[in-house]
Design goal:
Layout (H helix, E strand, L loop, with lengths): L1 H13 L8 H22 L5 H7 L4 H31 L4 H38 L1
Helix pairs in contact: 2-4, 2-5, 4-5
Length: 134
C-alpha cells in the first residue's frame, strides 16, 4: 500500500514537467477567474465569504455548494479529462483516482480559496466608493 501511494505521489508530482503541462497553469487560472466573478457577485449581494459560510451557515450550505459546483464544474471535468488523456499517453494506463485528485487541486482548491477573499476585497471597495460619493 505504501509503495502504491508513493508511486501515485511521484507520478502526480512529475505531471507539471511532462506533456500537457499547460493545464497546470490554465485550469487554476480559469478557476480563479470564476472565483473572482462569483466573489464580486457575492459582495454585491451582501453574502458572507464563501469558505467561511460553508463552515458556519449550515442552513444554506447545500445552496452554497451547488453555487460553487455550478461555477467550477466545467473546469473540474476538463481537468479530469485532460489528466486521463495524459495518463493514456504517458503512463499507458488509466488511474482515475489520480485524475480526480489532480482535478481537485487544479480546479476546486483555487476556486474555494479565492472566492471569499475576493468577496471581502470587493465589499471593501464598494464600501469605500459609497463613502466617497456621500
Amino acid at each position: 500500500m505504501a509503495d502504491m501511494l508513493n508511486q501515485m505521489w511521484r507520478e502526480i508530482v512529475e505531471r507539471p514537467d511532462g506533456p500537457m503541462a499547460f493545464r497546470f497553469y490554465l485550469q487554476p487560472v480559469m478557476a480563479m477567474l470564476l472565483a473572482m466573478r462569483d466573489g464580486i457577485k457575492d459582495a454585491h449581494e451582501g453574502r458572507p465569504a464563501y469558505l467561511w459560510a460553508l463552515f458556519t451557515d449550515k442552513p444554506h450550505r447545500r445552496e452554497l455548494l451547488q453555487s460553487g459546483w455550478s461555477s467550477v464544474a466545467r473546469v473540474f471535468i476538463l481537468a479530469v479529462a485532460m489528466d486521463l488523456i495524459y495518463q493514456v499517453l504517458v503512463l499507458k494506463e488509466l488511474r482515475p483516482l489520480e485524475g480526480l485528485l489532480v482535478a481537485v487541486f487544479l480546479a476546486i482548491v483555487p476556486y474555494v480559496l479565492l472566492r471569499g477573499p475576493v468577496n471581502r476585497v470587493a465589499r471593501g471597495l464598494f464600501h469605500h466608493r459609497a463613502r466617497r460619493q456621500e
